[in-house]
Structure formats: C-alpha cells, structure tokens
Amino acid sequence: MQPLTTTFSPELDRSECTACHSYSAGDQIFIFYGSRSNADLFVHNGFVFGDNHHDSMRLKLGVSKADPLQAERAKLLSRLGLPTTGEFYLKTGADPVDGRLLAFLRVFSMRQEHLEHWLDSERSSDLVYPDCALETEVETKTWNFLHTRIKLLLSAYPTTMLEEYLHLCGGKRENHFEKIILSTADRDSNLDLTTIISSLVDCESIVLDHVATKDDLDQLNKGGMASCRRLAIHMRVSEKKILHGAIDYVEQRLLACGHPSSNN
Questions:
Q1: How many domains does the chain have?
Q2: Domain residues for 76?
Q3: Residue from 41, 230, 39, 241 nearest 154 by CA
Q4: Cβ neighbours around 142 below 10 Å, total
Q5: 61 lies in some domain
Q6: SS3 assignment, position 129
Q7: What is the pLDDT of residues 14-59, one digit of tens each?
Q8: Rounded to the nearest 10 degrees, what angle do helices 38-45 and 227-256 cross at?
Q9: 114: Cβ–Cβ under 8 A, 6 or more apart, which residues?
Q10: Which residues form the Rubisco LSMT substrate-binding domain (predicted)?
Q11: Most exposed among 1, 6, 42, 48, judged by the fewest C-beta atoms under 10 Å?
C-alpha cells in the first residue's frame, strides 16, 4: 500500500496528500514520486536525484519512408510491438540499452536477407535480448550506429563534465576538490568521471555551507549559483552520466563482436 495518495483539488486550486493508513504524531511520512527520470522530475517537480536508479534519457528514432526496405522493417517491428517512429530510452546502471531500443536498432541495421530471415523465424522476439544469436554484421552495425549517436549527443553539450563541476563550485579554483580533479586531468586526458560526479554534491555543499548572510547569498547568485542554475547543471550531469555509461557499455559490446568502435 502506498503511504500517501496525491490528488489535485480544482475547487481549492491545490494539491492534496491523503494518508492511506493511520499515523501517530511524530511519525515520519514518505512520499514516492514514481519510477521517473530526472528530466521528468526536473520539469514537473523542480528537483533531481543525484543517484536516481530510474533515470533515463530519451532518444527519438524512426525508419525513413524513403527507405527501400521500409515495408519489411515495419512488418518486423510490428511483430515486436515496436513503432517505425517513436521514443526509446537509454538507462542508468549496468544495462543502459533498453531492449526495445536494441531491437529497433537491430531491425534498422538489417539488410534484406536478414529481414527475410527474421520475418520467417519463430524466434524474432529474441531480438530484444543483448545476447540474441544474431549475424555479426548486423550486431556490429547496430552497436556502431548507437555509438555514433551517443557521441553526437555528447558533442551537443556546450560544456564538459569538468566545467559543470567548476560551475557548481562557483568558479572557486582554490577548492581542494578541484585540485584533485585537475591533477588527474594533468596526468591523464581521460578524466575520472566518477570522481568528478561524486565531488559535485560535496562541492555544492561546501559552497552553500559558506553562505551565512544575505550579502553572501546575493554574491553567490550573481556568480551563477542560483538554485535554478544549479538544478540545470545537475540535470546536465545526470544526462552525461547516462551517456558516458552507455558509451562504455556499447564499446564492450563491440569488443565482444571482435570489432572495436570505429569512432575511437
């Protein structure tokens, strides 16, 4: 049973939370916002979770009507319960590629003989599974396409993870967290993203703990650390975590195919 149920009252123009069972004075009450991505929480609730196990990133993909194999692809996708154009998701965690996304990309990557084979097969539903017995050519093309798409998404961000970190630190270069990360960058161009991400919350806490007066707060806001901007930065970090995790996963799949990424 849910601890609370939330509804909106048009008469009173407000949200109302109703307890689903009895509570005593002083009891702690929890509310569950649902299995939602940080993007959804950001837009509709005004916050994000740094460690949201339900986080995901939306990709919009489609089969062109000009594709000479559009009819065959549409037929196989329909059998899998997938649209020819729709929204798919990369997820956070160890298995970032959603089964629906994987199946769509595999169908998208097939040549005519592959499509004919899977249309005749009784095991077409296996296409949603990472370890489906698939032609190496199709599998390699699938993962290379996704690798390229993720790289393009990452390149669209105007800032790097390190720059996001510096923004959250208020641009204070003397902060010891930054020194740790910058020294890592000096030694190795491949930044330790886990170190950066885990430092973001600590860094923000240090900056906010320093705020003791209105003048301090005004100065902090002038420096670009207003709450809305912090949320936006955390949102970008959340998205980049998903994309970097997906890149690592895709590259492992390509190595398993015996074909390192062509984009490395």
A1: 3
A2: 56-151
A3: 241
A4: 26
A5: yes
A6: coil
A7: 888 888 888 888 888 877 778 889 888 888 888 888 788 999 999 9
A8: 160
A9: 135, 137, 138
A10: 65-243
A11: 1
